[in-house]
Amino acid sequence: MPGYSPNPDPGRRLREARQRLRLSTREVERLSRRLAEEKENQEYYISHAWLSEIERGELTPGIF
Question: Which secondary-structure segment (H or E) carries 15?
């Protein structure tokens, strides 16, 4: 697709969104755990460590 270039740093965008909402990585973990319990689906859970690794660029999140 002409003019399309993927974002080379998804972790940066994720961190910016989290900070815009004034959430710590620990708060994201807590909220995601609660959502996973409510939905009875552990795929909603995001650990603090996993989120930190993505934000530092050590991991790239998949589509799921």
Answer: helix 10-20
Please give the helix or strand (H or E) that residue 35 lies within, else none: helix 25-39
pTM score, whole prediction: 0.79
Q: How far apart are CA 20 and CA 42, in angstroms?
A: 25
Question: Residue 13 in contact with residue 7, Cβ under 8 Å?
Answer: yes
Residues 5-62: pLDDT tens digits?
555 588 999 999 999 999 999 999 999 999 999 999 999 999 999 999 999 988 887 7
CA 22 vs CA 2, 14, 16, 27, 46: distances in Å:
36, 12, 10, 9, 17
Q: What is the CA radius of gyration of the chain?
A: 13
